[in-house]
Write a structure and sequence with these properties.
Layout (H helix, E strand, L loop, with lengths): L2 H6 L6 H12 L5 H14 L3 H10 L6 H26 L24 H15 L2 H13 L4 H24 L1
Helix pairs in contact: 2-8, 3-4, 3-5, 3-6, 3-8, 5-6, 6-7, 6-8
Length: 173
């Protein structure tokens, strides 16, 4: 079962989520590879195995193996970085940001896809995890790569829709 099939089975109270997901799939703001990449990495970020499996089914035919590998790489590094850097900006008694992170982050220079696409993936994870420092850092890079405000907002919107799908799945189980 893919995400579309799951969303179509949602009860009436989740109709807004169903309509928002359908709208996101049919927009032309992001290209299909970017859109399905955001959907897949967002599903990983929700930490719901059933949604991850549905997302893997949903993205078949839209993403090549290299793009999927870099989605896993972006998720791997961002699931660490977003937690650590969220700590550094939430802790107020000491300036932890001034200290070396001492975290290995080699994948940030090893991905194979387009830099803008990789940054979009990282941004989506930061949005779901809720790390303001990471959101701002990746947004700055996206802007320098001439990614529009509408595209950046769309990434955040799609990530929030996927996160909501996971939460509804948890409630109706």
């Amino acid at each position: 079962m893919n995400i579309t099939e799951i969303v179509n089975s949602f009860p009436q109270y989740a109709k807004d989520i169903k309509l928002n997901y359908s709208k996101a799939l049919n927009e032309k703001i992001l290209n299909k590879q970017q859109l399905y990449g955001i959907i897949l990495i967002s599903s990983f970020s929700t930490q719901l195995a059933d949604l991850k499996e549905a997302a893997l089914e949903e993205v078949k035919g839209h993403l090549d193996d290299t793009f999927v590998e870099d989605i896993y790489g972006a998720f791997s590094i961002m699931s660490m970085n977003a937690i650590y850097y969220r700590f550094t900006h939430l802790a107020t008694e000491y300036n932890y940001s001034a200290m070396p992170a001492n975290l290995r982050m080699q994948y940030l220079s090893r991905y194979k896809i387009n830099k803008s696409d990789f940054e979009m993936l990282c941004f989506a994870v930061a949005v779901i995890i809720g790390c303001g420092k990471c959101i701002n850092a990746h947004e700055v890079i996206l802007r320098k790569k001439n990614i529009t405000n509408l595209s950046i907002q769309t990434i955040a919107r799609v990530a929030s829709i996927v996160n909501s799908i996971a939460n509804i799945m948890r409630v109706i189980k």
